[in-house]
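Review session, final week

We close the course with one last complete record, chosen because it touches almost every idea we covered. It is DUF485 domain-containing protein, a protein from Intrasporangium calvum with 112 residues. Go through it on your own first, then we will talk.
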Amino acid sequence: MSNDAPASAAEDRYAEVQNSAEFEELRTKFRKFVFPMTIAFLAWYFLYVLLSVFAKDFMGTRVVGDITWGLILGLGQFVSTFAITMYYARWADREFDPRAEALAQKMGGHHR
């Protein structure tokens, strides 16, 4: 039974953190950032795919030399991925991580 006690205490602690108002606020803040970003990125990605399938003439239109709209929009996928990643990293450093760290310390958890 002594092996069950530490596991039970850890489970109780986990449930306490998960049910706390601070954790709920942190989860809500995370979701309000991540879900809209994910939807926006997926919409942009699927627009590119749909244009590639259904608007081949447009995607093949040359803009400058051999550079087409398809190439520009395709490279835009990479640029937008890096931009979103950098935006998330800054947001997390500024808004999310300090609150998560404060919650971990308050709940007696380990910090980085």
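Two points worth writing down before the exam:
Residues 5 and 11 are 10 Å apart (CA to CA).
The first strand starts at residue 62 and ends at 64.
Good luck, everyone.
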